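Prompt: For my understanding, could you write out one protein's sequence and backbone structure tokens?
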Amino acid sequence: MGLGSVRIRVVTSRDEISGMGAEEKAVHLAFRPSDRDLFSLVKTCPGIELLQLPASSYEGLSKFIRMYLASSGIHLVKGDVSGHWHDLNNYFVIPAYVLEKINELKVQGRTDEEIIGEITHIRKISPDMILHLLHSSFLTSSPERPRMNKI
């Protein structure tokens, strides 16, 4: 059984949060969220597991919010969705071939740094996102471990 693609919901404004579906597991906030926006996101998407923020927003998060997200089971990742056009699609997709390549390199015994170097050469994905994928359930294809927004 092959690995599925990962879909990350791209949210460009706080007004979009209330209209999101509860099934969203991976979200990229393309705006600087307030604490209220983050609380609203967690309430609207109770199953969220991954939150990606641009570097400027990531660095500005308070220690309290970081602890709140961690205690809510949300993995916080710094990075962008390079090349994504929100006008065309609400999701940034990390294709299955990227996950398969990460898995292949992991099986070969490559270090995290080597894997990050090779994957960023193939596809523009943040190093933090690659590390998250490398150490998450995305690289297993067992049916009892659901993947985020599998295509």
